[in-house]
Each structure stands twice: as C-alpha cells, then as structure tokens.
Write a structure and sequence with these properties.
about 200 residues, alpha/beta, Rossmann fold, two-stranded antiparallel ribbon, 9 strands, globular
Length: about 200
C-alpha cells in the first residue's frame, strides 16, 4: 500500500470524542503512525505477523498494521467506551482487528510485534512504564512505539536490561492540537521519538 493511501486511511479513524486527560488520550498523528508501521514493515515485515496494539485508543495503529497485512491484530484498550468506535473504524477501513478491554498491566498474550503510543507521563509521572514492561514481556520479535524525547535514556536502559536491541530511534513531527481544558494553545509541537526495537527473545 502506498504511503499516502495508508495515511489517508489511518486519518479516517476518528479521534476519541471525549478524551480523558488522566489517560492522556491524544490522537496519534496519521503520518507518524504510517511512518512507524512502515519502519516496522521494513525491519521485520508485518504481513502475516501477529500484532498487538497496547493502549490502542480508537485503533489507528492497529488498523494501519492490519492494512499492511498483519494477522491477527489485537487492540488492547482500558477505556471500554473507545472500543465500539475502534471496531466501527476497523470495519469502515476493511481491516480485520480484534479489540479487547484490558489494562496493559494485565495483558499477557504474546505477539510477534507490539505497537503502541503510550502516555508520555505529562499527567502522571512514569505512566508509560507499565506499557514498556508489557511490551518487552509479550513481544516475540519487535516493538514499535512513540515516546517523549525526554525518555530516551530510560527506554535505552530498559531495552538493554531486557536483552533487546534498539534498531532505530528517530525524532518525529508531533503537533498536538488543543485537546484538554487545561491546554492554552491551539497547537503545541511535542518532542517525540519513534522507536523500533528488536525484542530480546525470538521463537
């Protein structure tokens, strides 16, 4: 699938209608999502790979992975109100994705590839830690994720501790529109990195 088509179809996945600040429910930019999935596709090949999207929200990364041939794809989301939206978006995109309601801290089912846009810790310090712990526990081949650039040292050390290998870490353009009541600016550019990590164990 061409990049512009993938971006367009990811962009069609709606945003959370009532985003919760404590959960940092912000939309993954469609172009950033497409580039992360393309990077994973180059490295490990998504076609036929099992993928889990941790904290999937309305399903942008999960839908994008399915459109690139990943199978099966599971989206894991703690907010049950977002799951019907994600399911409808997947149907509209003709993407086969299973969505489940679960806290990532309780998720144990392995997958070849983990994708995620976890909280950056803007509301609750270290809110991203359960996501990274889960990702390193269940990923059999690779992890693709976004993170605040301030977390580079933490993630690199965690990968080293888990016997994983950082394939690439690249800054990405991330413009956050006004989402929550406490936001004062119409748009803020956040320092965000795209990570591709080879998991510590392979089948």
């Amino acid at each position: 699938m061409r990049r512009d088509e993938l971006v367009r179809r990811i962009q069609s996945v709606p945003l959370p209608p009532h985003p919760e600040a404590p959960l940092e429910q912000v939309a993954t930019p469609a172009e950033a999502a497409a580039d992360l999935l393309a990077a994973l596709d180059r490295y490990v090949g998504l076609a036929g790979r099992s993928v889990v999207d941790l904290g999937c929200g309305t399903g942008r990364l999960a839908v994008g992975a399915a459109l690139l041939g990943a199978d099966p794809v599971i989206g894991v989301e703690v907010d049950s109100s977002l799951v019907p939206i994600a399911r409808a978006a997947a149907r509209a995109a003709k993407a086969t994705v299973e969505f489940r309601v679960s806290d990532v801290a309780e998720w144990k089912q392995p997958a070849d590839v983990v994708v995620m846009n976890p909280p950056f810790g803007a509301q609750t310090r270290h809110a991203d830690r359960p996501f990274w712990d889960c990702a390193f526990s269940v990923a059999r081949r690779s992890i693709g994720a976004f993170a605040s650039s301030t977390s580079r040292t933490f993630i690199a050390r965690l990968a080293l501790d888990r016997g994983a290998h950082v394939v690439e870490v690249e800054p990405v353009r991330w413009d956050l529109p006004r989402t929550f009541p406490h936001h004062r600016s119409a748009m803020v550019r956040l320092p965000v990195d795209r990570w591709v990590i080879e998991a510590g164990t392979k089948p």
